[in-house]
Structure formats: structure tokens, C-alpha cells
Amino acid sequence: MLTRKQHELLMFIHERLKESGIPPSFDEMKEALDLASKSGIHRLITALEERGFIRRLPNRARALEVLRLPDSIAPGLNAAKKFSPSVIQGSLGQSNLGRQIKPATTPSRTPAPSNDDAVSAVSIPVMGRIAAGVPIDAIQHQTHSISVPPDMIMGGEHYALEVKGDSMIEAGIFDGDTVIIRNANTASPGEIVVALVDDEEATLKRFRRKGASIALEAANPAYETRIFGPDRVKVQGKLVGLIRRY
Q1: pLDDT 10s digit of each residue in the chain, 246 long?
Q2: Beta strand 233-243 with 192-197: parallel, antiparallel or unpaired?
Q3: What is d(CA 20, CA 48) in angstroms, rounded to the nearest whole number?
Q4: Model confidence, pTM
Q5: Helix H or strand E encompassing 26
Q6: 104: left (phi > 0), else alpha (psi -120 to 50), else beta?
């Protein structure tokens, strides 16, 4: 699933290629999406390329090719070139620009391996890899599912994110961990949340309030606390569990 800005950019490039056969310039894309800088366009193009929607053609300036459109726009047209999603690496995963990140499937109970102590496991979607560090565009893309103990996700919808980075190490969240997130749009001070900033990027941080402002606090002294006006931050979910493999 694409974020709103990713979808808008993909359709803008697609329509321009249909009209003229020439991709739009970065300035034209920035103006069409009403972004403040071209760095946002670079991030959106990278996200679309990693998800298999576009391809940058080598040795040609401004050369972009649309490989497929979202299934909601062109169902059936993409079957012949179905994309096997690559994992995003870098900072925290991508948001859905104003909508809550939602799991692609409703968690369902599946039987665990049979033994005398067997209990029902719960399958939840992994929405991609995030970095506990400097945020990039947020993830809204299921890569696979995992099974977790049912007592880890009591009530509500849940999804998982794979962690890459070290900004939350003093909270016990390390590179390679998988965090379990419960969908929520509010949080209490001190809770660790997936927070959407400016409808463009998300980050995994501890939620604080500084007067009328919101502070997103790392658990690593190497990272600064980021402070925003309350209208700039939306809570996307709260940390409820963690899985670590050795």
C-alpha cells in the first residue's frame, strides 16, 4: 500500500508520461505535490522504486519508467509483473500521510506446532523494516507475517516492524529486534510510539509533552529530542511487545 504522497507522485509521473512521453522534472514534481524541497521528492521516488512501481533508467537524466500502478487503479494489469517487495533499510519506516498505519490483514489465530504445551499463536503482519534513528518516509507495506503469543496482543489491531538502528537502545530496543505495535492515535507521556511527523515521515520514539508542544525522545544520548507543535504529530501506534532472535 502506498502513502498518499507516494500515490500522488506515481500518478503524476504516469499521467505526464502518457501525455508527453517525458517524465516531469524534480521541480515540476515538487510543485505538483506542494512540497517545500526536492529532498522530499527524492525520498518518494526511492520509496516507489523500492516497492517496484517505478524504475530509474541508467545514464539518462530525468529518466523514469512506471512499471505498475496500484491494484486499486489497475487491477489485473500488474499480475504479469508482480513485484517481490524489497525491505527498506535506513531510518524509521513510512507513514500513510494522515491515516493510521493499519495491518494488511486482521490478526487471526493459527495453530502453533503441536506439543503438550501448545497454545494458539496469533499471526500479525510485518509492515517492513524501520530504523530507530533519523526518520525517513514511513512504511505502509506488508512484507510477511509472524506468529506471536496471544497474551502479547490483548485487544485491538496490531502490526510488527523490524528495527534497524540504535536510537532506542537504552529502552532495550536493539538493531534486529522486531517490535509489536498496537494501533492507536493517542498516547500517554512516557510511552514509546510510532509517531507521524508533518504527514510525511514516521519515527519510533518516546512520547513526551513540553507545554503545548510534543517531544519525541530518543533513548540514546547521541540523538536529540525533537520538539514539534501538537498539530505536526500524529500517533500511529504504541509499543506493546518485542521479539529478539539470538
Answers
A1: 678 888 899 999 999 888 888 888 888 898 998 888 888 888 888 888 877 888 887 655 567 888 888 765 654 444 333 333 223 233 333 333 333 444 434 444 444 444 443 457 788 888 776 656 655 445 556 668 888 888 887 778 898 888 877 889 999 999 889 999 998 989 999 999 988 888 777 788 999 998 889 999 999 988 889 999 989 998 988 999 999 887
A2: antiparallel
A3: 21
A4: 0.54
A5: helix 26-33
A6: alpha
Assess whether 205 carries a catalytic annotation: yes
Q: Are 58 and 49 in contact (CB under 8 A)?
A: no
Among 135, 150, 137, 218, smallest CA distance to 180 is for: 150
d(CA 16, CA 71): 20
- What whole-number distance in Å separates Cα of residue 61 and Cα of residue 192? 42
Catalytic residue among 91, 95, 145, 167: 167
Sort strands 158-163 and 233-243 into parallel, antiparallel or unpaired: unpaired
- Compute the distance between CA of residue 70 and CA of residue 53 in angstroms, rounded to an integer: 8
- Catalytic residue selected from 5, 30, 164, 205: 205
How many separate helices (H) and strands (E) can be counted in the chain? 3, 12
